[in-house]
Amino acid sequence: MAISIEPLTPAIGAVIAGVDLAQPVDDDTFHAVEAAMLTHQVVFLRDQAVTEQQQRDFAARFGPLHIHPIYPRSDSVPEIMLLDTALNDLRDNALWHSDVSFLETPSLGAVLLARKLPPLGGDTLWASATAAYDALPDTLKAYLGTLSAIHDLAKSFPAERFESDALAAAKRNNPPVVHPVIRTHPVTGKKAIFVSEGFTTGIVGMDPTLAGPLLAMLYTHVTRPEFTVRWKWRVGDVAIWDNRVTQHYATYDYGNAHRVMNRATMMGDKPF
Ligand code: OGA
Ligand code: MN
Predict the structure, then answer these.
(1) What domains lie within the chain, and their CATH numbers?
(2) pLDDT score at 163
(3) Any catalytic annotation for residue 258?
C-alpha cells in the first residue's frame, strides 16, 4: 500500500496512511515517516495494533530510548512508559510542555499509542514552536537569541501527586539545567522557541519580575491556535512528534474515566 501524508493545518500536524507498524517496517517506509515528522512536527497513524515490543523497536530506529525517572513503565518492556490514570494523577500533562526539557539532552521525540480512552475528551494538542518563532518581529528574535532559560523537573511533578521517594531521587539526579531560549533544530536548521510552562522556571541573569512576564508572553504566543493542532484519539492511534520544536498539552476534561497511553521516548541532543 502506498504511503499518503495529509497535512492537518498549515503550521503543524499530518495524518499518515498506508503504514502498519505491526508489520516489519522497511527502511524506505521508516525514512518517509521520519521525513514527515520533520516536516509536520507531529504525525498521526490510525489503527496500529502494535505490541509494546513493536512500539519500542520502531521508536528505537529514531535513536536511543529514554527511561523516565518518575512515570511507571511496562514490566516486560521498560522503555515503554505508562501514562495510565489508574496509576498516576496525570493532571500535570494538562500544561503546555516539551517533554523532559529538564534534561541536559531533552528528548528528540516520542511515539505515543492510545490504549484506552474516555468516552469523550482527553484530546491532545501540539504547538509548533518554529511557526511561533517565525511570526516574531526580527528585533525580538534577535534579543531572545541572546537569552538562556532554566528548566526544572520539580515544576511539573508536584510533591503532593507523586510518590515521594521516586520524586526525591529524581530531583537529586536532575538538578535544574540551562538551555537557549531559541534553539536550532539539528537536522532542519529551523529555529524554535524553547521555553514552556511545564518546566521553565526563569531566565538566566534576569530578575523574575521581568523574566516572568517575558516567559508568560512567549508561552501565550507559542500556543496561539494558528500554531496548534488538536487530535481526537481513537484506540490504536499512534502520534509521533518532534519534541525539539513542539510543545504539547494533554487535556484533562474526562473526570474519573480511565485513559491509558503508552509512550516510547527517543533521546535527543543538547540544544544549541
Ligand atoms: C506525553 C504527554 C500526552 C497524552 O505523552 O508526553 O504529555 O495525550 N501526554 O497523554
Ligand atoms: Mn508530554
Answers:
(1) 4-267 (3.60.130.10)
(2) 73
(3) no
Q: How far apart are CA 63 and CA 267, in angstroms?
A: 6
Q: How far is the CA of 142 from the centre of ligand 1 (A)?
A: 32
In terms of Cα–Cα distance, which of 27, 26, 7, 25 is closest to 16?
A: 7
Contacting residues for 43 by C-beta, under 8 A, at least 6 apart: 5, 13, 14, 15, 16, 33, 36, 37, 239, 240, 241
Nearest 5°: CA angle at 45, between 197 and 8? 65
Q: Is 179 in the active site?
A: no
The phi-psi region of residue 211 (left if phi > 0; otherwise alpha if psi is between -120 and 50; otherwise beta) is: alpha
How high is the pLDDT of residue 21?
98
How far apart are alpha carbons 171 and 157 in whole angstroms? 10
Ligand 1 atom nearest the C-alpha of 81 is 5
Instruction: For residue 215, count CB atoms less than 10 angstroms from its CB and return exposed for 0-12, middle for 13-18, buried for 19 or more.
Output: buried
- pLDDT on residue 168: 87
Residue 159 has what pLDDT?
Answer: 78
User: Residue of the nearest CA to atom 6 in ligand 1?
Assistant: 99
How far from the centroid of its chain's Cα atoms is residue 118's Cα? 21
CA distance 27 to 43: 18
Question: 124 CB under 6 A from ligand 1?
Answer: yes
Mean pLDDT, contiguous 10-residue spans, the chain (272 residues)? 94 98 96 98 98 98 92 94 92 93 97 98 98 98 98 86 81 94 98 97 98 98 98 98 98 96 98 98
Does the annotation count 263 as an active-site position? yes
Bridge-based pairing state of the strands 14-17 and 4-7:
antiparallel
Task: Give Dmax over CA atoms of the chain in angstroms.
Answer: 56
Whole-angstrom Cα distance, residue 174 to residue 89? 21
